[in-house]
Amino acid sequence: MPHNPYTGTIYQGINALRLLCDEYTESKYLTFNEIKALNGSVRKGERASYVLFVGQKPITQEERENTRGYVFEDEEGRLWQKIFKKIPIFNITQCQNLDMQLLAKHQKQHNIHFEIKQRDRFQENPFIEQILKNSHIPIIHHNKDRTYYCVNSDTIYLPPKENFATKEQYYSTALHELGHATGAKHRLGRALSGDFGSVSYAKEELRAELYSFLQALELGIDYDIKNHASYVKGWLKILQDDKSEISRAIKDGVRMVSFVKEQWYPTKEQERTPQKARVKPRIQNKLENELGLER
Length: 295
Prior knowledge:
The protein has helices spanning 13-20, 32-37, 61-65, 100-110, 112-122, 125-134, 167-181, 199-219, 225-238, 243-263, 285-291; strands spanning 3-4, 9-10, 29-30, 41-42, 49-59, 71-73, 79-91, 95-96, 139-141, 148-150, 155-158. By secondary structure, it is α+β, with helices and mostly antiparallel strands. A hairpin with a 5-residue loop joins strand 6 (71-73) and strand 7. The chain is globular, with a radius of gyration of 21 Å. Residues 128-250 form the Polyvalent protein metallopeptidase domain. Its EC number is 2.7.7.-.
């Protein structure tokens, strides 16, 4: 997983997706000031990657009147302003003269290798099976190649597991159909009645595929970004290359991941307590390029 060994931050959700799209050989990232603190520098001509930071700061009633952006009040009546920042970071392969011994001390201090190993350990197939079980959505394995979610019976239909080349392919497919299931009226309530090839059908397929991709990323399942992008691009054609629809679909995909985490992730007794979702709706150049989108 992409991470900052200096601070111990393990990037998640869309931030992780954006960094994974860079395809560097190293997963370590640093800010410009951290690179300087490690006696290093960024090589000439290197371009930064960006992660989105979301925070909040207290404000007064007087400040509220002159404040633009999202302001909310907590249970104790205090006012807070949401802060969104794009932070430039660099992969360590873009740097030179870094004090690697000093960096190793920071990494050891945060025990970050242990944290990443823990995430890997928890992202095994039994964890995904528990999510599917906790959804209480029947999964019927039939002797057909067709995979689909039936709205009327609230049932997922999949081929037998042995029909898939890898376990990762099976779980990626299962999560795609689980994504559709989150759209049921008693869950997130999306439009699921469109006929194959229609605009509404294409919109839902976009959301299910982006959810599957984001959830696979969250759970540590191997994925093929070109395959996901190709699938998404196909449905985007039906939408007449409406590029703004990708942004809306990503927002819904993030909402679907949050729903699954809050409703169906294993409890502490079953497996572990999941972390709160922190993913935000942005997408990296590499995925946009695969989709044929331009800024």
